[in-house]
Design a protein that fits this description.
single chain; alpha/beta; 6-stranded mixed sheet; elongated
Length: 229
């Protein structure tokens, strides 16, 4: 049986799908039931969750809103999450005015009603600091590195051209060897035929004429007798 997702997982899933990941979480803070700090590597978002029990108290909701106002200065984005059935107790216009996001949730999932307004000024400052950290080299050093890279690329191009020529010569040699093998096979066959034609088999026939005595030479009876079976 699949595990039932927790309240934290249901609410934070909205921002996890947008590329955020959980950095830290706390239970039962002073003003809210759960706090989750999320980040996408560039911005930090704090998600504040009120449970159903907390929403039954107007004083608890007011305390949570006051605390959220303070968090706006500390984080790039601030979000309040409340149960769906208590959404009417929250003034969406007030949250939007202060840049605080609003999420409603139930057992079926969560939905963002008011998106948080991220602190763009703080984000720009963070980006500037990152650029300074990531680019410590001087301009002359960058020019030198670029020149060296260009030399290496030129050498690689020369090697590539040489490899192409070697491959072409290799294919040419394979073709020539194949043709030589065909010629050699043809020559072998022709030599065998010539040898057969020139070979004279010695005669071993028993019917070869033998040397006769002088008295039988030109004797007509010899021919007659030789025809008898």
């Amino acid at each position: 049986m699949p595990r039932k997702p927790s309240l934290r997982e249901i609410v934070s899933a909205i921002y996890l799908d947008e590329g955020f990941y959980e950095v830290h979480s706390t239970e039962n803070s002073v003003s809210v039931d759960k706090q989750i700090i999320l980040s996408d590597g560039r911005r930090e978002l704090i998600l504040n969750i009120l449970s159903e029990d907390s929403c039954t108290s107007k004083a608890r909701i007011q305390d949570a809103l006051i605390e959220l106002m303070k968090l706006v200065e500390k984080f790039d984005g601030v979000v309040l999450a409340v149960p769906r059935k208590f959404v009417r107790m929250i003034d969406e216009n007030v949250l939007a005015k202060h840049g605080i996001g609003l999420v409603i949730y139930d057992t079926m999932g969560a939905e963002e009603i008011v998106p948080p307004r991220f602190n763009e000024k703080k984000i720009k400052n963070n980006n500037t600091e990152e650029i300074k950290v990531l680019n410590p080299m001087q301009i002359n050093e960058l020019i030198y590195l670029r020149s060296e890279i260009s030399k290496v690329m030129k050498i690689l191009e020369e090697f590539e051209a040489r490899l192409d020529r070697i491959e072409q010569e290799h294919r040419s040699l394979i073709t020539r060897i194949s043709k030589l093998e065909e010629v050699l096979e043809y020559v072998k066959r022709e030599n065998v035929e010539i040898a057969r034609e020139q070979y004279v088999k010695p005669s071993t026939s028993t019917n070869a004429p033998q040397k006769l005595p002088s008295f039988l030479l030109d004797n007509p009876w010899v021919e007659i007798l030789s025809k008898r079976e």
